[in-house]
Amino acid sequence: MTDDLLSRPPVHALLADGTTVRIRAVERGDHEQLRGLYEEMSPENLRLRFFAASRRSAKLAADRACAPPHRGYRALLAERADQVIGLAEYETGEDIDTAEISIAVADGLHHRGVGTLLIEHLVSAARAEGITTFTADALSENHEVLRLFHDLGLRTSRSFDGPEVRCTIGLTEDDTYLTAVEARGRAADVASLEPLLRPRTVAVVGAGRKPGSVGRVVLHHLRTGGFTGRLFAVNPAAASILGVPCHPSVPALPQTPDLAVVAVPAAAVPAAAEECGKAGVRALLVVTAGLDRDQARALMAACRSHGMRLVGPNCLGISHTDPAVRLDATFAADHPSPGTAGVAVQSGGVGIALLDGLSRLGIGVSSFASLGDKYDVSGNDMLQWWESDGRTDLALLHLESFGNPRAFSRTARRVTRRMPVLTVDAGRTEAGRRAAASHTAAAATPTMTRRALFTQAGVTATGSVGELLETAALLHSQPLPAGSRVAILTNAGGAGVLAADACVEAGLVLPAFAPEVVDDLLGALPRGASVGNPVDATAAVTEEQLKDCVDRVLRHGGIDAVLLALVPTAVAAATGDDLVRALTDTHGPRTKPVAAVRLEQDLPVRLLPATGGGTIPSYAEPQAAARALAHAALRAAWLARPAGTVPDLDGVDTGRAHGIVEAFLAAHPDGGWLDPRTCADLLSCYGIPQIPWAWAETEDAAVLAADRLRGPDGRVVMKAHWPGLVHKSEQRAVHLDLQGDSQVRAAFRDFETRFGDLLDGTVVQPLAPRGTELFAGVVQDEVFGPLVLFGLGGTATEVLGDHAARLAPLTDHDVHDLITAPRCAPLLFGARGSGPVDLARLERLLLGLSRMAADLPQLAEADFNPVLATSAGVSVLDARVRLLPRRPQDPYLRRLR
């Protein structure tokens, strides 16, 4: 067992029934409990575990698990309430890539996922040690353990030898395995949230007698909101509050509550949480703010040790509008309207704004969680709840931080195929979290990282709460467009121009109508109408004429959406025409989205009832309508594209790459920038092509290298190198266009003169041919993981800032998006007659970079600038790689925060 694995802290995770267990490494002091685990098993279970019912096996098993640690052996246990309830082990033999595993679960706790959870953690630990295969022997009648292995999601084979079965389990982490882990995690997560969002009994701890106190307001909301379960208040100084019976403490309650709302001063929160846990409470909602570090740590310790899920602290509360529950444990001004939108926020103020906006629009809320400081329950938890609750069809998020972005991404990718997931990209990040040590790190802003997450996951990211509500109104009420082609109809030319500008600025397209469509529309409109796009129907248009025009445009195959920009006129008022009815007077649902812009509207967005059922969104500003339509078009495009896959790459040598990294960090324990030779070795492990080069430490060696590398034009490039040199151009550490031996010698002497003992040596390269200079790099974000960047390269890369980013590992779709997103993309496809570059090799370079970043958590950043792309190929002209001593993390391992 390696020191790295021994140092891993214990974690808490959820079983299939939603209860919490602690997973940790076995220690010597666990001997008696482990022996008791086996001694308390029935003879039948002992026989299935050891192939015999000998009680002596219990001591031997405990001795083995608690023996001094040694390489190739790993033992993990699961415990609940300080009681060991399961054990899983592996041990390698002569073949260090393969380990034998065994598992034991306490009697009475089978079928709760204890064994599966332990095996998942054992798989993660084994992968970190380079183990690729598990083997296990079982009796053929031990159907439970055989089913456990089969259902893991890993590739498993069996061979029979009499009454015994030999199972061989490959540990490759593919999408099948991750999907199986997700499914188990989702079921456990939803079960754990039941006492939080569907409690049968609620107690408000700290409900005060003073009007205006937070606890009293929450109690009032629970009571007046019509909570269907039993409601109690905990206050030692009162017999009842607001007609709700009071008790002096949680243990004194006549019934153990599923959910306790804690509204006591910060100093009293840890004791209140511990009291709740000992009484058997299963979920806490802590609205109290201002906990210091010690109080926060004690609160979490109580929740984990007693298996309670926690929302907060420092939050507005939670609500669930299901008629069977009617839970409103918030201190918002009003009760949320029941509906179909799930809402999770960190900011209470944002939560109030969203609750009010959704109620006003008539969308309403299915469930709401103000996550506050988000110690436990997160946006990921709520997404999984909404996915399973059968009521939610729209998810709205406001998250200021991410605990596990890669797990969130996988969940969001799945959920957003079933319902729109919208978020406010508020830009709240930790400033200066990463030093801009290279072009890559300078370009990788936190905003870019979050947007990459949202884009890849299919999350609709908006810039404000207002935009979120505007987009939610359209996605809730209208079908998705098939594309981004919009027709604008107006009764005032100026309003049409404003709408057209807004649509184009939002990335939408206003196609011209075909001649036959123009003739068709002119026949339906009053004299003087202009049928371009926008269609100016003039102030003389009647309600029936405009409705006819809308219907005709919707039938047009070249249009994906219709935007009606209207202004009130005296003409319409005099004739009694209501032009808005041109959109709202329908005979049933439409197959294309329609929306209105009414410049005189008092609210930013309304949902207007349609006669044929449903609603039509109406906006006060054309920009709002255009943004909403653009978000809908992007969502439709994301849904229409199949889920991407991470391509298998030929020529990748992950084992050699790990060896290079380990050797470098052994020599440089604090990490650092790789020297050119080590860097080239690492890049070769991933098939990343570099221009030919040579290392020269003397003047004569530089001349020999130049003679060998000169191309047809006879010119070479020389670059100085010393540890930590990053920006060569700024240091004037590059000489270009060197011809002949004399210029090579002069360049080398210049480096020696200016840099002295700092100089380690030089890199000599042939002068590169003409081509497009690009930039590619990766930076390892401590929270989000590796981020791959791509864009225009050269010395102006940071000035121009023409970069796109995606989180690794890149799928085939991600790498295509990465190449096409920057503004320089047309140059790669042959703009201005230059001819396209070798796109296949460019994609291969980016995929190799992504794979390197995903394989090596020690890769802090890589910077390829420039990358030369031509029609004949792609090569890296300058590469820098920085390593740090980092422990590998498994973002998909089931564990609570």
UniProtKB/TrEMBL annotation:
Xref: Pfam families: Acetyltransf_1, ATP-grasp_5, CoA_binding_2, Ligase_CoA_2, Succ_CoA_lig
PROSITE patterns in the cross-refs: GNAT
Listed GO MF terms: acetate-CoA ligase (ADP-forming) activity; acyltransferase activity, transferring groups other than amino-acyl groups; ATP binding
Gene3D superfamilies: 3.40.630.30, ATP-grasp fold, A domain, ATP-grasp fold, B domain, NAD(P)-binding Rossmann-like Domain, Succinyl-CoA synthetase domains
All residue ranges annotated as the N-acetyltransferase domain in the record: 21-176
UniProt name for this protein: Acyl-CoA synthetase
Organism: Streptomyces capitiformicae
